[in-house]
């Protein structure tokens, strides 16, 4: 028998089902890795803004607004090489979409087809049937179609989920309006700010400054018994401001007055999903909320989707891809599932205890500090010191019976001590 031909990189035709932040991110990553990418989006959408550079995380007393716990980000750029940028989701999406489709840059511009909702996938042929009657065929299919993913069901993953005990309403406040009304200008803090979240209570307000500080984005959490929005959808008619204020009779007056002038009051449905058993089957994989929906309390949903996208781009790059799609997706499953599952669990804990949130999770000197297990809290080091290339190299070396010579374990430097006392490799 003759020897098998050497395996080598080959260009793939890729379908990305879903054109949100995760979908556009993976389209960019695969374009840069040399592949032909088409994004299929079920809606017809159009989605510019300046980021806010965050300088701290501030947890404030629910009643008085006085700071309870502050985690400084002043050394963030020095430690991690980049500032901590806060973007509005729509602004980030537009940047990603423009980058994916522009002529400049490495690789072929991504093709975007709107009004294409996935209906079925033939795993044997790689063909996709859309509800508009179109049929397309691709080598690799990425399901980035969100929390209600059709692709997820088609690959045999059936979510075990339940409504959260917490509800959320989102609203926007224009900083100019707040200043004109004589209210405090929170944009000057350059911080992610939180009211409440202590003592196991569901009440919590999260403030994210966006658009260079021009917009204050509020996420308002309260017990589901005070208002159940699990059957509502984002993009429906704006709710009255009275409905937003109702759960908060004792809230710090400064932030309550901000909410009184809020616009675009919309519900955010919150469901708690148990971890899924896998993220890939045959030549199809899941990304972002399609593969690991999580509560928003670690601010990591979009981050994990972008990490997924990066992993796919690296795995199918000329450096690592040897033509075997199923090997690459098996590696994707092995490196991504443990990491996203950990973040998913930490986000659920932080829903009722803000001390479990990255940053506050290591503020042990705060008088209100209390966590479930100090050794298991999620830390900023664990998120930012992660090296995906080493993680991929380690797993591929094992799969290919090669020797891994790196000094990382699951992408983290061996010997690194985390603020929770855990030493990587011990």
Structure description:
The chain is α+β, with helices and mostly antiparallel strands. Among the domains are: 13-47 and 88-159 and 276-352, FAD/NAD(P)-binding domain, CATH 3.50.50; 165-269, D-Amino Acid Oxidase, Chain A, domain 2, CATH 3.30.9.30. Helices cover 26% and strands 22% of the residues. It contains 11 helices and 22 strands. The strands form 6 sheets. The protein has a 7-stranded mixed β-sheet with strand order 5-4-14-15-16-13-17. It has a 6-stranded mixed β-sheet with strand order 7-2-1-11-20-19. Strands 8-9-10 form a 3-stranded antiparallel β-sheet. Helix 8 (301-315) packs antiparallel against helix 9. The longest helix has 26 residues, at 325-350. It is globular. The termini are far apart. The relative contact order is 0.14. The model has no long low-confidence stretch (mean pLDDT 93).
Structural class: alpha+beta
Quaternary state of the chains: single chain
CATH class call of the domain at 13-47 and 88-159 and 276-352? Alpha Beta
Overall number of strands: 22
CATH superfamily of the domain at 13-47 and 88-159 and 276-352: FAD/NAD(P)-binding domain
Summarize the structure.
With 426 residues, this protein is α+β, with helices and mostly antiparallel strands. The protein contains eleven helices and 22 strands.
Keywords for this entry:
single chain; oxidoreductase; D-Amino Acid Oxidase, Chain A, domain 2; monooxygenase activity; six-stranded mixed sheet; FAD-dep_OxRdtase; FAD/NAD(P)-binding domain; alpha+beta
